[in-house]
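Support request, priority: normal
Reporter: lab tech (M.K.)
Component: structure prediction queue

Hi team, I submitted a job for N-acyl homoserine lactonase family protein from Saccharopolyspora terrae yesterday, and the status page still shows it as pending. I've pasted the exact input below so you can check whether something in the sequence is tripping the parser. The sequence length should be 272 residues. Please let me know if I need to resubmit or if it's stuck on your end.
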Amino acid sequence: MSDNDKIKVTIIPTGTMHADLTWLLIDPSRMATQKQPDKQRDWVEVPTHVVYLEHPNGQKLMWDAGVPRDWEDRWGPTGLDQFFPVDAAPEEEWLDSRLKQLDLAPDDIDYLVLSHLHMDHAANAKFWQRAGTTIIVDEKEKEGAFSFDGYNKGAHIKSDYDGLEMSTINEDTELLPGVTLLRTPGHTWGTMSLQVDLADAGTMLFASDSLYRKESYGPPAVGAGIVYDSVAWLESVEKIRGIQERTNAQVIYGHDPEQITRLRTGPGNYYT
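Reply from support: The job had stalled in the queue. We restarted it manually and it finished. Here are the results:
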């Protein structure tokens, strides 16, 4: 079987934030901001990525949409620009640059699947506003993301996604043969994970913010400073663990600075 007959998955780094580790692993005794470095104890890298998937049936899928170039302007009104500055994003890693490297236009993508609608995962979703692409979110995420008035609710910034036509799922859904969207809520109302069953690499589970880092996974699972529903989050972690054990999957964490260096990443460096 040639590579053209297999699912191809490309992990694309899209810029690195920094943040106090407490946001990702709970330690209420400390919290740093960009302007208060004297308080910091663990001011850590928080890399971001998207996943580009090419299916042998000819369809193309993008998982998440990365951080925005204008993050200071868009995140400033929330105050979160101080807690999550995108201060390590070289020119070649912004999503529009990545699309050019892949020789893609937004309308080449059949599916944009947003794991959730936080500002570091959905910020560039409007690239696809008039692309004819099917945009998919969890139904609970869509409901929650429009349930508030004003500019933002935490890391949900309404202008990132308002006006988009978004399809929804309400159960684990095999979107394409070998490509399954998993409901893993807790981090937000409707966070999803992505399961891809590859011919050569085996199963890969892209956990998004259901699992920030290796330490989040444990066991035991370690909670985070940004979790909407801790009970649901723990249940989702164990759901992922069950699938991982059953399929011997590789779990890809949402923001792990060590793991991302060990993965095959960037245009041309795909898994099959």
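The chain has a mean pLDDT of 95. The longest strand covers residues 8-20. Let us know if anything else looks off. Ticket resolved.
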